[in-house]
C-alpha cells in the first residue's frame, strides 16, 4: 500500500486521544438538539431508543471510521486514496469535506448566539423573569445581519487561532482543559436546578418512559441524532483516527466517548427540564428553549445571574471541541495535500467558512425570504449534511470496512496487531458493520429523503 500525505503531528497521549474525540462528540447536539428531541420522543422512552441506536449504528460506524483513518494515517480524502487507490471511494471523503463546511456554517451561527448571550448574561441584560426579554434579545440579534456576522466571524477566528497551534499543541491541549471544566460547570448548574420546585416533575419526565410517543419517525430520528452526536459519517472521526496513537484501544475509546457523551446529554437534560417544569412550560418548546426560557428561569433564582452566565459559558465551552474537529477536516486536507502550509490551510479554511456561513446567518434577516427546496439556507445546510451526507458516508464506511477491507485486516487493526484481547468485541462489531448497521442507515437515509 502506497501511503501518501501522512502527517507528522498527532495526539501525543492516550488521555489526549480521549479528550479530543469526546470534545468532538460533545457540543450543541447535547444541549440544543438532545433535550428537545427527548421532549418530543417521550422522555426516557427516547433515551432507551437513542441508546440502542448508538449501539447498533453509532458505535459500529465510529469504530470503522477511526480504524480506517488510523490505518491510512491521512486526511478524509487521503485516507481513501491510500486504502483504495485509483477507485472512486475518495468521493466519500470529498462529500465529508463539503459536510464539514455545511455544518460549520450553521453551527458557528448558533455558537455566535451563545457567545453573545454569555456577554448579555454577564452584564445583566437578561435579568428578567419574563421570557419576552430573552425573546426580544434573541430576535434583535438574529435579525441584525452585522451583529450576527460579527459573532460568527469572532467564533471562527477563535477556533482558527487554536488550530494554528497544531494537533497536539492546539486541539489536544485545549480539550484536555475544556472537558473537565465542562463537567464541573454542568454539575454545578444541575445541582442548582435540582433544588427548584419543579425538579421532581422534570426528573420524572426525563426518566419515566412514555412509550406512546414513540413512532417510526422517533426511532429514525434517534438514529440520525447518533450520527450528528458522534460526529460520524463525514470524515471527522477519520481525520481524528489518523491522529490516534498506534497503542490506543479504538473500541474501548469509542465506547468511553459514547458513554461520556451520553452523560453530558443527561446532565444537560437535568439542568434544563426541572427549570422548564418549574415554569410550567412545554418540554418540547424547541431550540428557543435555550435562549428564551432559560434566562427567565435563572432570573427568578437567587444568584441567578451567576448561574445563567455559567450556563451559557458551559454551552459555549461544549461547542469548542466540536468546532475544532469540524474545522480540522478541511485544514488536514489542504495542509496534507502539500498545496500549502498548515497556517495557510487554517486561514484559507477560515475564509471559506466565513463565506459559507453568510447565507446561513442571513437566513434570519436579509435572506429571510429566500428559499431553496422550501428551506432557508440555515435549514438547507442542516438538512443536506445531517439527513443526506452523514448517513450516506456511514453506509459507505460500513460497506468498505465490512466487505472490502475485510475481517482479517480489521481484526489486526482493532486488536493493535494482536496485543489487545478483544476478539469477541471485534467479532460482534464485524457482524454489525456487515449486516445490520448499513441496513438501518439506509432507512435513515430514505427517511431523510422523504421516501416514506
Ligand atoms: N457532535 C457535535 C455535536 O453534538 C457536532 C458535530 C457533527 C461535530 C459532525 C463534528 C462533526 O454538537
TrEMBL record:
Its main location: membrane. It is a multi-pass membrane protein. Keywords: Membrane, Transmembrane, Transmembrane helix, Transport. The lineage of its organism: Bacteria, Pseudomonadati, Thermodesulfobacteriota, Desulfovibrionia, Desulfovibrionales. GO terms for cellular component: membrane. This is Sodium-dependent transporter. It comes from Desulfovibrio psychrotolerans. The chain crosses the membrane at residues 12-32, 44-68, 89-107, 148-165, 177-198, 218-238, 259-281, 301-324, 345-368, 388-408, 428-446. It is found in: Membrane.
